[in-house]
Amino acid sequence: MAAAQSDRDPPSALCAEFLNFSAKDTASRWLAAADLQQEVYAHLAVYVPRILCLGPSGSISSREEQREELACQLLLLAPLEWLLLGEEPATGLALLQEKNQPSPLCGHVFKVGEPTYSCRECAADPTCVLCMQCFLGSVHKEHRYRMTTSGGGGFCDCGDAEAWKKGPYCQKHTPTETRDTEEDPVAQLPPDLVARGYSIFSIILKYAVDMLTWEQDDQLPAGLEPPEKGDTYYCMLFNDEVHTYEQVIYTLQKAVNCSQKEAVSFATTVDRDGRKSVRYGDFQFCEQAKSVIVRNTSRQSKPLRVEVMHSSVVAHQCFALKALSWLGQVIQYSDGLRRVLCQVGLQAAAEAENSSLVDQLMLNDSKMWKGARNIYHQLLMNSLLMDLKYKKIFAIQFAKNYRRLQTDFMEDDHERVVSVTSLSVQLFTVPTMARMLMVEENLMKTIIKTFVDHLRHRDLQGRFQFDRYTAQQAFKFGRVQSLIGDLKYVLISRPSEWSDQLRIKFLEGFEAFLELLKCMQGMDPVVRQVGQHIEMEPEWEAAFTLQMKLTHIISMIQEWCSTDERVLIEAYRKCLSALSHCHSSLPDGEQPISLSLAGHCVETFRYQVSQDKVSIHLPVCRLLAGLHVLLSRTEVASRFPEQLPLGELSPPLLIELPLRCLVLCAQVHAGMWRRNGFSLINQIYYYHNVKCRVEMFDKDVIMLQVGASMMDPNHFLMIVLSRFELFHIFSSADCRKRYREANKDVVQQNNTLIEEMLHLIIMVVGERYVSGVGQVEAFDEVRREILHQLSIRPMAHSELVKALPENGNKETGLERVIDSVASFKKPGVTGRGLYELRPEWNKHFNLYFHHYSRADQSKAEEAQRKLRRQNGEDTACPPPLPPPLCPLFGSLVNLLQCDVLLAVEGAVLQWAVEPSGGGWTESMLQRVLHLVGVALLEEHQQLENSSGDDDVTFNYTSKITRPGEAPSTSGSVLALLESLQNAPHLEVHKDMITWILKMVTNIKTMRERTSSASTVTISQGQGPEETVRDKDKAERKRKAEMARLRREKIMAQMSEMQKHFINENKELFQQSLEELEASTSAAAEHSPLSLDPSCVSQVCVGPRRVGGAERRQLVTCILCQEEQEVRGHGRAMVLAAFVQRSTVLSKNRRRNLPDPEHHDPLFMHPDMSLGIHTASCGHIMHATCWQRYFEAVQLKEQRRQQRLRGHTSYDVENGEFLCPLCECLSNTVIPLLPHTHSPDRSVDHPSLEAWLKTTNQQIAALHFAHRKQSDGVAEGAEPAVPEGFRVDFTPQNPFSSSISEMITTFSMSTYKVGLKVNPNEQDHRVPVLIWSTCAYTIQSIERLLMDEEKPLFGSLPCRQDDCLSSLTRFSSSCWTAAPVTTTHTHFIRLLAALVPDSQVENTPCILDIDMFHLLVYTVLSYNSVHSLDQSGRSGVDSAHLHLLHLVTVAHLVQVLLTSTTEEVCMDQDSLATEEEELTCQLYNTLRKHLGSVLPEVTSGWQLFHCVKVGVLPFLRAAALFFHYLNSTAPPADLLVAGPGQWEALCSYLSLPANLLQLYQSQHTLLEPLIHRWCCHPGVRQNLQGGGVIVRFPRESNRLIELPEDYSVLINQASSFTCPRSGGDKSRAPTLCLVCGSMLCSQSYCCQTEVDGEDVGACTAHTFTCGAGLGLFLRVRESQVLFVAGKTKGCFYPPPYLDDYGETDQGLKRGNPLHLCAERYRKIERLWRQHGIAEVIGHAQEANQTLVAIDWQHL
Ligand SMILES: [Zn+2]
Ligand SMILES: [Zn+2]
Ligand SMILES: [Zn+2]
Ligand SMILES: [Zn+2]
Ligand SMILES: [Zn+2]
Ligand SMILES: [Zn+2]
Ligand SMILES: [Zn+2]
User: How far is the CA of 1727 from the centre of ligand 6 (A)?
Assistant: First the structure.
């Protein structure tokens, strides 16, 4: 290692070179040389190894990197530039650019994560995208656009006229003049420049290509060998997609002995660039590392690729990349130079194919490492793809090499984005290019052939066989699918004109495609499993993946065919012959069976789905069905019948396979295939699923229609009956009877099969909404789909989109029709916008809509019946009027009136008339009634459209009046219907039968009246009025009865209250807090509102205060339901509570978190950077009941952890539990304490002066005592002790042991959470933290009330009210649990901040103290001092009042010191008020002490305004505090928002309305205090800019402002680079909503160690920004992330909505998103109310998968 180090050229050696080197001279020397290439190579051979890749690159510093960069530019690139331009490069390039006429193409290459835009209306295909700049300047901004984030690669299509149907240019790229695009840009350049360009570009490009494709590790190409070659090597590690990050990191640590951090950095670079040198040194040294790596990674898979390469080789490769980038930059200046480079790149040597430099690059693509590929791909995009002429030539080369490139890609293990094959999207999506390639290079056929060749594994019949795939083949199958993508690009735009060549090539491609489909026809056949369940689920997914991927291709090929008659005819022929080829495998050798029914006979195959092989994959049949429909739609069939092989069609053959498939589905539904497992269920599911059905299920139905329209309807139906294995049931009455007595399962199976078969017949005659089958447009088809979706229930836009099939352009056509059928309802703060069906469309509802699943059907039926009942209509759902059929399908209607169908109908009706046993179902009847209805509608319509009775051949009414000939019929269908009309067991169908009978009557009347030409309109569902009314009455009665029953049930449940209470409350808690806030604190036993508000003004502090101690507090334990009075000596009652650290009020997020061990929390800084918040759900328990409950929770958790690891939504080890009633997250309990005593009115109220004097004496006595205690001796004389004050007095504990225990419990929780330390009851900081959480919680609630403009009192929800009152009372008593001297010391130190005390050190200045905290602390700690006063002559209340006065004055001073009143000249006409004068006076006093540090302010009005506003939050918080402390009822004025608040507040606090009087009245006493405050050195320091000055009132914190348009955020995030890995794009940029920092989340690079654990950037950030709690927006995912601690988190809907009122989590749909201010405010409120942790808890409780996510790694 050492030897290698010394070999290095010290960088300083290069410095001398810099000075002596002249780029200009070098260039001219080269120019003069005979062989330019030799000269340039010689130069590179010398300099490249000396500049680049010196030494171990792991430790390269950014300075070295800069030096390398500089040397590269000066010594290597500058001479090239001189040579090219022949002048100063900067000048030359500027000149070039000036003269350049840029092409209108934008060509901006996308970075990873950059937003891209596409227009749903104008883009030629979905791959056409715009960059943000172009988009904003384009017309598409106003269109329906789609927004996505780029995966990197690809470029902006702005300016490409072929990419856009409309508006191809943005404002910037609109061509200024009509420029001749054919003009050669090279001609614009001076010829000598062109000549130099050719030679330089050839040399450099060749050099780069040679180096990048160089495969020797120790040699260099001729002419590049370095003058001296040292023994310096690199051990180069290459990327693969097999080994994980962890494996690589682990191996590297072992192999090259580096730290974990270095290993991570190596691994990251290898992943990004594709290779990285991990060791530098002599050959031996590198070999050694290589063998360790190989050994370590070869166990399970093939080893990591490692090579030992000579340093000069690495250096040249490195420079080759720089040279390519340089070329890319230079050509940006001139389109002429770009074209020169293109020519150089594509120039082929005369004799050899694929000899051009670009060919060499492409063909070696899969051998290069990622970084190299990326750079040359980028160069291709900047050069060849930007020049329209060369783009074409390149495309041809690409197409020529297509097969080989794809084959290379199959072997390559890199992702497709870094493969040259991914350029296909740039070439094939240009329609003219695609067509040219198709004609000249037979591209379509090439792609399909390549695809088929790569799927080699076939069965005996030549079909694909995926179930035998090895892992390797499966991987290849995954890769080969990208070819389908290429095919899609080629086909995506249909030709508007066809040339003969195009026809020929398309049909060749079509034939190749048929070959592919033939390999799929009959794939994965299944055989019904009887007896035993299958042993192994067969593979089915691969076949369906293929089908799904091909769905769009099949549809597109049909669209192509539809645009040209000749092509269509040829395609049809080819398809038919392919199908006959497939059919040849049908076993036709066996004897056919002969069927006869209702006087008709037919022969058919001997085949049973339930016994023989059947396959779902029939793509050839289905393609033929599609083409057949096109024949009908384009009317080719009627115009050129002679050219069509219609005569060759054998209808029974056509329908055979699709029918088998449909029967298979029916049998699966009937439960006959249960033993075949889930794979079959899944296949059936996908067969009907929206992703596949267009080219599967739908086409099968069409094929049956095709067959039926060409056959005798009776024959068709007999074959159907036979395939359903139902023929015998309808052919003889006896047989039917026999089955009725048979096995119950068999009966049920047959019933389902009959239902399915009837449904199929309904579809065959009724599904006419395909253009070509019925006379409809595509528009009608989509509309019908939507209206049936909306008939189920109102739906959101995205749900509808999901329910509709997408075309190749990812469009459903939804937008065009949605507004005509539905009305949109906007969403509220939650939920999403919904579309609702307009009522006029209800009559188009078809219960047997073919895309309904059974579940959809019953939901829709229920919804429709309900709707009809609501409208007072009858509940019949008759079939809607079907559209007329196209001529080719016209004979389908005959199915409705054929004998076999009538026989079937008759049979079912007959069974319904005499129902016995299980041989009949209502669904069956319902389907028959529907069929009858369809037939009647058909007849009615034909009659209406005809001129006379004669030409209506359809005469269903006459047929149903005829007595049937079918075996079982006893009467005519009509007679049967009439007898069913009043059957009591068919009440549900009564309306439908009535409707049918009326139709029959109508039609009869019409037929009778045909001569008189008057038409009768059908009166749908107009029953006689009376029946309607009767029904109404019955309905109402039924409802009343139901309601009564429900009430009774509820009453019964009430007695079981506890159980149900929980559930009810659960719902309550899911309601937002706002709703809860309406229910104000009104619990009767402590409601102060009942007092007469008009009586003497209420005072909450001081000797005049009104107490509330008289009221008894009765509470009920939620666990045992016992009532209990709260008393000091009673059983302890506790309130479930949650204590958490909070930074919600922080005004300084940069302050570091305190060191837990040494932090002194006694003085809260006014920046409030960290507080402790307490919340409660307000549920009360016995302490003992709670303890029992908590122990049970602990036990359960222990057991659970033994079984499965992982976290729960609450952390039992940290004392967390869920409230047993409402499941609110809690981590401690607050004991309930009795009210404070009423003030003792017998004692005097000393003046402030007198009180201060006494207190000072008391303090002096305490000081003395403490000293004596700690040192043993006390110096000086014993101070005079006030009478009755006993220093050694130990106050009696006023609480029972159970309450004391709970006091300790809560104290310890607060201590533990607040400081993040282990519990320690002896710590003197324990009481301080309790006071702190009391003060902080009050302050945060005061802020919320203020910002939401709610009154100070009476607007809090009960639970907060209860929480604050117990918390405050608890805080005032908690000192009883701490050593008494501790509290004394605290009081002494606190008071010293106000009344300076020489014996107390380190008192902060008043600018460093939050005055409200000080007030709370002093008041609460004073209690302990007062307890020593046994004189009985002083009241604690007087002290409270004096403390309030003192703190208020200090706060006034604080406000004035920090006020920033800028002198505004305002004419003040009115005289200054007393308040203003006093304010000025005080301010001037301050200036006297501090001098020029304070600015001069003359406007008393402004100053006073400042004071009043600044001090208000303090007064409000103080009022809340004393209100809860002393249980004093609030004054009426503070119960409502409005004027008079100030006066009411002051009087409630026993303060003068003019606060300045506090100072004025005690002037002599306060003056020296103020002087001492101001003289504290901290004040001056602070004001002179020694830190963040907090000004009053402190502005409330809000979440950061978010942009209105979401794409602005995406754009911001896309330019955000990872702060740790030098300019890399971050993969998951995440925005902190609290402070606005952007973080690099969910990535190795930005993991940090927090408390000995590696955590992701988000989690790490929460510890500095939110004390462990964070709110983030994951920008790429459009998702809000809540994180609490390391183990808890959840996702939350983002505040961004699309125009349909929906969020787009994961940005999958790409609709434009806009900020929804209300939703964002809701999130903000959640945060400010400290509700995030609870939301996380509830989310995790509801969704256990959230618990399993590693939140800490985000
Ligand atoms: Zn652009
Ligand atoms: Zn543009
Ligand atoms: Zn547009
Ligand atoms: Zn209890
Ligand atoms: Zn609760
Ligand atoms: Zn933050
Ligand atoms: Zn990072």
Answer: 13
